[in-house]
Amino acid sequence: MLKKTLLILVAGMALAYAPLALESGNWASRLPSQDDEQYENDNEDQVPEADIQAPEEDKVCRICQDDEDPVTPENVSHVPIQCDQEDWFHDTCLRAWLQTGETCPLCRAEVGDAALVQVRRQMRVFSITRLSTLLELSADQLPFVEHLHLANNNLGQAEAQALAHALSNMRNLQYLHLANNNLGTEGAQALTHALSNMRNLQYLHLGNNNLGQAGAQALTHALSTMPNLEKLYLTNNNLGQAGAQALAHALSTMPNLKQLYLGNNNLGQAGAQALAHALSTMHNLEELHLGNNNLGEAGVRALADALRTMSNLQKLDLEDNNLSESQKDDFFRIIGAVAPNCDVLF
Q1: Does 248 score more than 80 pLDDT?
Q2: pLDDT digits (tens, 9 = 90+) for 58-78
Q3: Percentage of residues in the chain with pLDDT exceeding 90?
Q4: How far is CA 227 from each of CA 55, 223, 285, rounded to the nearest angstrom?
Q5: Alpha-carbon distance 232 to 262, whole Å?
Q6: Residue 121 — pLDDT band, cuts 50, 70, 90?
Q7: Does residue 97 share a domain with residue 23?
Q8: Structural domains counted in the chain
């Protein structure tokens, strides 16, 4: 019978707490697997959901005992073990401890199977920042990855193909950051099929990758299968008018999108008009970034009309588009009537 709870800290941002634990040692054997899911299904009453609460004050981790780095009362989880004590530990400290053996760090009692499954359950939300770490995971562990941050890795075509293979097994991914990787059109095409399975994705950053018009067209199908996407970053990709027109079709299928970054893409007048049609249906959009896109007079007019339905808009960036004073006045007038708290940048 499980008696008490072992309390561990889960850091405030999911991307921050896991890389240290995952990439400072071989955690593949400690990550969740399909066997854990089967154990939970067979022993549901023995692996209860954690009752989340926070300590009333900062606590000292009983493993590292670092007074200058206390366990703070932010985002904590209970992990039940067979132990008569209740104490606080850093998340990374506890995971490092369990890497050396399956015993309680306080009383040295053996940690039961049910508790280990729940400890590993906590690892279902973790971040990876190196492709090599990702590729070390087995196919039955990849579905548990929810955050993948591989920005600034200068991935080539071969790396993009290896990444695409891994992504095809990551059906629960919620956060994908691939900015500044010089993916190019070929990289975008390699990733398209894998991204088409990302129905749970909420954050996608593909900025500064020189995707080009063909890359944008390749990604259109994948983006149209992401109904839960909330933030999309495609800044500085030379999408052009054809890329904008392709993207507009995908945007019309993304009702939950809240932030859209399309700055510095040379979208042009025709691209702006295509986007305007899609934007008129995106009632949940809160931020729209279209700076430096040579939108043209007709494109600006179409965008202004689209704004009439965007009552949730909080930020509109139209910098460096050579808008006339009368065009700026039109935007201010429309925004003032529809979304009076919106911050407009010209």
Answers
A1: yes
A2: 677 777 777 766 766 543 433
A3: 44
A4: 37, 8, 14
A5: 9
A6: low
A7: yes
A8: 2
| CATH code: domain of residue 300 | 3.80.10.10
Q: Work out the number of other CB atoms within 10 angstroms of the CB of residue 311.
A: 14
- φ and ψ at 50, to 5 degrees? -70, 140
Whether 215 and 184 share a structural domain: yes
Which are the contacts of 299, defined by CB distance < 8 A and separation ≥ 6? Answer: 267, 268, 269, 270, 271, 272, 273, 276
Same domain, 131 and 119: no
- Calpha distance 70→63 (Å, rounded): 11
Task: Please state the rounded mean pLDDT for residues 89-95.
Answer: 64
Q: Is the pLDDT of residue 39 over 50?
A: no
pLDDT at 65: 78
Could you tell me if 275 and 300 are in contact, meaning their C-beta atoms sit under 8 angstroms apart?
Answer: no
- Within this chain, do residues 117 and 158 fall inside the same structural domain, yes or no? no
The domain containing residue 39 runs over which residues? 4-123
Which own/partner pairs from 11-16 qualify as long-range (CB within 8 Å, at least 24 positions apart)? 11/74, 11/75, 11/91, 12/74, 12/75, 14/125, 14/126, 14/127, 14/146, 14/147, 14/175, 15/127, 15/147, 15/149, 15/175, 16/127
Q: Encode burial over 16-55: b for 16+ CB neighbours within 10 A, e otherwise.
A: ebbbbbbbeeebeebbbbeebeebbeeeeebbeebeeeee
Same-domain check for residues 187 and 288: yes
Tokens 């018009």 locate to 213
Among 106, 123, 140, the domain boundary falls at 123
140 and 287 inside one domain: yes
Q: Which of 107, 123, 139 is the last residue of a domain?
A: 123
Instruction: Give, for 279, the enclosing helix (H) or strand (E).
Output: helix 268-279
Residues 279-295 have pLDDT tens digits of 999 999 999 999 999 99
36 and 174 share one domain = no
Q: Are residues 147 and 129 in the same domain?
A: yes
Q: Is it the case that residue 330 has pLDDT exceeding 60? A: yes
